[in-house]
Amino acid sequence: MITDDATAAGRAPKCRRWRVTAAALATTCCTLTLTPAYAADPDANYFVYVTNELSNSLSIIDPRIDEVVATLEIGRRPRGVRVTADGRYVFAALSGSPRCPPTMPDHQCALMSADKSLDGIAMIDAESRRLVRVLPGGSDPEQFDISPDGARLYVSNEDADAASIVDVASSSVLATIAVGREPEGVKVSPDGSVFVVTSETDHDIAVADADTGGLLARVEIGLRPRDVIFSPDGTQAFVSAELGRHVAVVDARTWTVLERIAISDDALPMGMAVTADSSTLYVANGRARTVTEVDMKSSAASRSVDVGTRPWGIGLSPDETRIYTANGPSNDVTIVDTSNMSVIGRIAAGDSPWGVAIGARP
């Protein structure tokens, strides 16, 4: 006989849908383990794409069943990941450079060998779920963004202190621009006129013309900026400062810092997502294990939830009811209900999940 916890305690059981796990079917004796499918969203019109840095793969999660439905081998050390606006193509940054943890001194990392032939940007057909080709992406691509028309990629080249502009159709690098040291986060403005690159070591952002690559501004942010996103209307840019423990709000017309919103004393702000009306910002806090909700109207951090080990990549569902975080050391993805900032599910991914991108179902 199978019972749930409520029945065993003498209470009327709640109506739930149950999903039998593969492990349960393989179990010996007479014990059958059932997993409640609390989180599945049968009406979801999107997929969640997660790069797995150490298993060289891309996991595709279907939120209609809250499971990985495909795992693709795409190349060495995939990190940054983006999806075209129509959901047709997924791009992922690949790197032949060695993986150096934050605890490793720079001189020690420099002694490790790199295979530059493995650098590039993987292009995946989301419908057929196959690797189409690998585009050039400059040296050691980490993060990147796609132009609104899908014609260009803007790539941070971490070990070269540069950013590359890549033409998708011709599979060629159009320009390489010097930016700050150890560039990481990249975002194109909603109108496609500029792109912004964060510099972890110089503690600033570089703003460049998206057409010519000409440098337009450098803006000091705070200690170790990691990610950058724009408000949907393009008037502001939000930049996470990991060691500054804040998010800088930057005027995207004058390129000046308007304010720095403190997250918490133990936060380590990294990946971010923002709602369509710019009222709420969600911040993944890395080794602090949390995601924090920031009320942009009051410029104050509000609720936080523990999501697991070192969340970096973060994605917000199109209906803004769910957050997905990639938790590298625990090899899983956490699902958060934004209505009450609670964890409603965990999905096993590949080895060391890094980036999260959400795209329309092709």
Task: Furnish the topology, listing elements before pairings.
Elements: H1 5-8, E1 18-20, H2 22-25, E2 34-36, E3 46-52, E4 57-62, E5 67-73, E6 81-83, E7 89-94, H3 106-110, E8 120-125, E9 130-135, E10 141-146, E11 152-157, E12 162-167, E13 172-178, E14 183-188, E15 194-199, E16 204-209, E17 215-220, E18 225-230, E19 236-241, E20 246-251, E21 256-262, E22 272-274, E23 280-284, E24 290-295, E25 300-306, E26 311-316, E27 322-327, E28 332-337, E29 342-348, E30 353-360
Antiparallel strand pairs: 1-2, 3-4, 3-30, 4-5, 6-7, 7-8, 8-9, 10-11, 11-12, 12-13, 14-15, 15-16, 16-17, 18-19, 19-20, 20-21, 22-23, 23-24, 24-25, 26-27, 27-28, 28-29
